[in-house]
Amino acid sequence: MDTRLEVRLREPNPLFTRWLERWLLEAERRKQKSQFKLRQALEALKSYPLPLYSGRDCAVLRGFGGTLCQLIDEELRQHRRSNLETRREANSEQYEHQVQQVVQQVREQRDKQQKKPRKLTKKEQLEIAATEERERLVLMEPGQFEVLLLVDTQETSGKNKRVLDQTRSYLESLDVQHEVRRLTIGDFLWIAKDKVGNELVLPYIVERKRMDDLASSIRDGRFHEQKHRLGQSGLRHVIYLVEDYGDNEQLGLPLDSLQQALANARVQTGVQVVRTENHYRSMGYLASMSRSLGQIFSRKTLHNVERAMLDKSACNLTSSRIGLLKFRALYEDSAKNAQLTVREVFVQQLLQLHSLSLDRAMAIVERYPTPRRLLEAYEESAGDQEARLLLAKIPCGPLERPLGDKLSQCLHEFYTTHFR
After folding, report:
1. Minimal CA–CA distance to 342: which of 350, 353, 352?
2. Can you give the pTM of this predicted structure?
3. Which of 21, 43, 155, 213 is flagged as catalytic?
């Protein structure tokens, strides 16, 4: 036979009971009539076996009128608010204590690290060595260095094994002292290297192009971008070494257009263009350049200068003392992933647009150094037609020809629709 258990709380509502007892004592002391109702409500509350959670719940009991229920709810709100503030103060004190513990631990760890010198990582050691190398003064007296041709790794790599080492084999057969390295700008350049490993870059750099590659780079904008980067390298003599591609047919662009692009580069930027019949002839040109530069610079005293000083030193070949860039400085400053200014990025962006030459891009950037300045100029225009022709009369190039209505309208459409 199942036994029925009865569970009864000893004091289901201690908080409400304590409040009623306090109010009852106060009413009796003041001899108020409310003491009778309060005594009746207290007896009913003590007799009720279940917990109550608000004054509204108490309304089912005898003696609990609307006023008393509201009084209980108000007291309950104050009680909860007081408990919340108490918990907040406790939490705040606990948080401050934890913060003080963390600060103390950090101080103890710092004291330990100061007492025991930290071992530098390999990356940090390399960075320190690179900084020291860039800041070290270099002086090369005649006879204390050799002239080397540096070949970019891209010139000695390829999918075809026959072409893989063609450049190196040609240079070796022509008895050219050279090294293969990754270059961040150009395909070939020359350095003066002394016995302790210091390297200074001679003011000559070569960009090798086959005619079909030239056509491809003009179509995708790489030609103008490379021309701009070469001009910013700090090396005075930029040489485009252009090889014929068979009979120069099926190049992707008309041969006349390619020749005009080379002529424009020669006139506008002062680069030197050298045409050769094939790869071997190109290597022969580099070999003759290596011999000539070796003869010229072997009798000079070379020292390093910062890039900002190159224009002032002017690298006069008739002088017995010549200032040159360090190879590491050129390598790091010319890296494609180096930090560029907004102005330089804006120029490169403009060069990707059709029919925008370097002269035109530079003329636009001279007037509006950033895309934001250009957009603001469009917004300040009196009307849409004026905004479309905003750039039309900007003079470009040595002849200062205007940019033109068509290009101005194309740029307006790009920067006011696709660019936003």
Report:
1. 350
2. 0.57
3. 155
